[in-house]
TrEMBL record:
InterPro entries given in the database record: TMC, TMC_dom
Domain TMC: 316-426
Membrane topology classification: Multi-pass membrane protein
Gene Ontology molecular function terms on file: mechanosensitive monoatomic ion channel activity
Primary location class: membrane
GO CC terms: plasma membrane
Record-given protein name: Transmembrane channel-like protein
Keywords from the named record: Membrane, Transmembrane, Transmembrane helix
């Protein structure tokens, strides 16, 4: 305390020597810094589900917390995607005079409204691609090119998703490297510096205590697993590799069977829809591919993309694809809710109130993080694929994930027990984003093919006057002034692409070499610290021996 008082008095003496202008600048800097800190604190308090996520962290640890943080990230991502589609595609149609969509659907009287809703409203609303049969929108002061905006927004939301996922992945990867670098340091940090002494609330203290306890259990469990792997004999390793090979072959066989089932169900559904029977059978035939896909996804938690057959489609095949993506999204949400209500809650009641041996053997369920992550990655992949054909799909996906957050929170708190094998938050976050990045790559393939290679429908949509959706971009560039056209053609040429690739590779090699040099310097500094510490201990021992 005496040193702090001396430092404060010294700062006050130095402040007296400053001019009025310097004192005003220093005071202004302090005020702005304090306002900035208060602003960031206020924004952090407005963070979505902040309190709920802290409660989950305290009760179930950082591994479960990472799943709900991942779900919150997807809600924000889909909301931004919806804002892009709404602001640049739907809003001009809504606000423009004399701009209206079209439909290629022939309404059939007598079918209930529920059938219309479950089928995705067909092409009758802003929900689907087929409604936007407008090429240019004339405003009083400018003309809006809707096909160009539609294409650029699609590229923008895919590129935004890529950048955001890679950025979060890099952050998680750095944390993972730091935590994996020195396990002993991680234990020391948690034991000696893990407590927050600003906590004054009893419930917050209990949550912090349980969170630290769970993190220590996670570290100890990881050390136990690493030691077990290191102690394996050559015979045990061979046995494990053989078992893994057999299981992987079995997984490939199951995956092939799932794809074949989807193919059969899709063909049967398309043929059956040509003949109308009755409401119930028509609804089952309409949803048959969605049911098969959802069941396959539920039984075998593997990521796969839907095989779409481009034969015997209606004149507006884009709206047809949008309807299929819409139905998959809705049906996936129904399955998640149904499993929670009809499987997880009854299991909890049976285990709690039934004393039979089977119930005790079944036991209280754990929150399966990998399976739940695959569920939402599957839904997000559908959203990326379907947004081009169903512009309102991100809004539907945002609402879906918002509701799923509370469904999963309720089932976690009421039905689940803590996992027997803890998950580390840094590893989980990086794994979740890596799987999501794979889903984005898979989603880009059909979207790119649909934009660049498949011919557009000539009966609906904003690209009725183009052979492919991509054709609007070079046609627009050709209408620009000579300077802008030359610049855009230059940066899109092969020479520029090759040069950019070479420069990027050189920059990457430089960063890798710099990181290696920094790592070597860190190791040298550690060795020097160890030498200084041992020398200091030796000097102390010699001094004590001399005194004695």
């Amino acid at each position: 305390m005496a040193e702090k008082r001396r430092d404060k008095d010294q700062r006050l003496e130095q402040a007296k020597d400053l001019s009025s202008w310097s004192q005003w600048k220093q005071s202004t800097r302090r005020t702005l810094r304090r306002l900035k800190e208060d602003g960031f604190e206020m924004l952090s308090n407005l963070e979505l589900w902040r309190g709920d996520i802290h409660v989950i962290e305290g009760m179930f640890g950082t591994g479960i917390l990472s799943y709900f943080s991942f779900l919150r990230f997807l809600v924000l991502l889909n909301f931004i995607m919806f804002l892009l589609m709404f602001g640049f595609v739907m809003l001009p149609i809504i606000t423009a005079p004399h701009a209206s969509g079209n439909t290629t659907f022939n309404h059939v009287d007598g079918l209930p409204c529920l059938f219309q809703i479950l089928k995705g409203f067909l092409e009758q609303t802003y929900l689907f691609y087929g409604y936007y049969k407008v090429e240019t929108i004339h405003f009083p002061k400018f003309t809006y090119n809707l096909p160009l905006a539609y294409l650029l927004v699609t590229i923008a939301y895919l590129f935004l998703s890529l950048i955001w996922i890679v950025k979060r992945s890099a952050t998680g990867f750095k944390r993972k490297l730091v935590q994996d670098e020195d396990r002993f340091q991680s234990f020391c940090n948690k034991i000696f510096a893990g407590w927050d002494f600003c906590i004054v609330n009893d419930s917050a203290a209990r949550l912090k205590r349980s969170s630290l306890l769970y993190e220590l259990k996670t570290d100890l469990e990881e050390e136990r697993i690493k030691q077990k792997i290191a102690d394996r004999t050559r015979k045990e390793k061979c046995r494990i590799y053989v078992i893994r090979l057999i299981l992987n072959l079995f997984v490939i066989a199951v995956l092939a069977a799932c794809f074949y089932s989807i193919y059969i169900a899709t063909n049967f559904s398309q043929k059956a829809q040509m003949t109308k029977v009755n409401f119930i059978l028509d609804l089952i035939y309409e949803y048959l591919p969605s049911i098969v896909i959802t069941l396959a996804n539920f039984i075998t938690p593997l990521i796969f993309s839907l095989i779409i057959q481009f034969e015997d489609y209606s004149p507006c095949w884009e709206s047809r694809v949008g309807q299929e993506m819409y139905k998959l999204m809705i049906f996936d949400f129904i399955i998640i809710g149904a499993v929670t209500v009809f499987v997880e809650f009854p299991r909890k009641l049976i285990v709690d109130y039934c004393d039979c041996g089977l119930a005790k053997w079944w036991g209280q369920q754990e929150f399966a993080i990998p399976q739940n992550v695959l569920e939402i990655v599957y839904g997000q992949t559908i959203c990326w694929i379907g947004t081009f054909y169903c512009p309102l799909l991100p809004a539907i996906c945002t609402i879906k994930y918002f509701i799923i957050f509370y469904i999963k929170k309720v089932t976690l708190v009421n039905n689940c027990r803590p996992a027997t094998r803890p998950f580390r938050a840094s590893s989980s976050n990086f794994f979740f984003l890596a799987v999501l990045l794979i889903g984005l790559a898979l989603a880009c393939v059909p979207v790119t093919i649909g934009i660049a290679q498949i011919s557009c429908s000539q009966a609906c949509g904003p690209f009725v006057n183009y052979t492919t959706s991509w054709e609007v971009l070079p046609r627009t560039v050709s209408q620009l002034p000579a300077g802008a056209r030359t610049f855009l053609l230059a940066i899109s040429s092969e020479a520029f692409a090759v040069s950019l690739f070479v420069i990027t590779c050189l920059a990457m090699f430089y960063v890798i070499a710099l990181a290696g040099a920094h790592k070597r310097v860190i190791n040298q500094l550690r060795e020097q610290l160890v030498m200084v510490s041992s020398y200091s201990n030796q000097s102390t021992w010699l001094h004590n021996s001399t005194v004695q």
